[in-house]
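User: Please fill in residues for this 246-position structure.
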């Protein structure tokens, strides 16, 4: 099992202020030191959080591996082929969405052709290619037909299900993960996973990689708060001591 951390959410905070902190590249260093197996970033067509500068710096500094999420029809495909991250995950992308809302609609002929072309281009550059799909057998079979190495199963519906629906969603994930194993696809999972809901997904034997972002970045804000406040107060208190000793 590998844990990849999605650092987009660090960039989202930076962009909310239009400044240079917090820097997702610095966050990635800490994430790696903490033992994560890789760094995931989604370079969106509208660059709303992660920038090209971030991806280029991550490629130069990350020692584990970068999993670059991208939409098939975007200019990011050129960047991916130039930079050759360890892994690329093709995802659907809509400008109006807050975050990726669902898996690739591979049943749609036009979408499928676009994804196939993008996947073939990525693979021809030696990039391990994964498709982000909903946990359904038809999408999985269509992904397998494209010859990609991996699929990432969208866990959003599982995460959003109420207690009564969670079990059914978990069964669904487990069944598709098993089928993925039979089709010799590497099975990843992600989206909406939290400290409260990750355990059953992590226990699905075929799942070999989890991509988690929001929940970890959210917790980092809280567990780091005490130290952050203390460090600021130390600076302020030291300045005040300076006044008194003048
Ligand atoms: N996997 C994919 C394909 C995603 O688009 C995202 C969200 O950027 C994640 C995983 C991580 O989701 P979350 O931030 O909810 O943990």
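Assistant: Residues filled in for all 246 positions:
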């Amino acid at each position: 099992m590998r844990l990849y951390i999605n650092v987009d959410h660090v960039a989202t905070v930076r962009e909310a202020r239009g400044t240079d902190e917090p820097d997702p590249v610095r966050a990635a260093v800490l994430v790696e030191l903490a033992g994560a197996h890789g760094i995931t970033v989604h370079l969106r067509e509208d660059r709303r959080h992660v920038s090209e500068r971030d991806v280029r710096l991550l490629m130069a500094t990350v020692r584990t591996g970068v999993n670059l999420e991208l939409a098939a029809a975007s200019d990011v495909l050129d960047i991916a082929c130039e930079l050759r991250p360890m892994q690329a995950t093709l995802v659907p992308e809509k400008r109006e969405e807050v975050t990726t809302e669902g898996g690739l609609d591979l049943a749609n002929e036009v979408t499928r052709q676009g994804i196939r072309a993008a996947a073939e281009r990525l693979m021809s550059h030696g990039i391990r290619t994964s498709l982000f799909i909903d946990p359904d057998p038809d999408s999985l079979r269509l992904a397998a037909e494209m010859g990609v190495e991996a699929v990432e199963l969208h866990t959003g519906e599982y995460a959003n299900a109420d207690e009564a629906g969670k079990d059914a969603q978990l069964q669904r994930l487990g069944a598709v993960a098993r089928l993925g194993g039979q089709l010799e696809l590497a099975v990843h999972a992600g989206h909406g996973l939290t400290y409260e809901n990750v355990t059953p997904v992590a226990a699905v034997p075929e799942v070999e990689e989890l991509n988690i972002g929001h929940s970890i970045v959210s917790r980092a804000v809280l567990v780091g708060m005490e130290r952050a406040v203390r460090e600021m107060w130390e600076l302020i208190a030291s300045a005040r001591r300076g006044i008194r000793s003048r």
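For context: The two ends are 59 Å apart (CA to CA).
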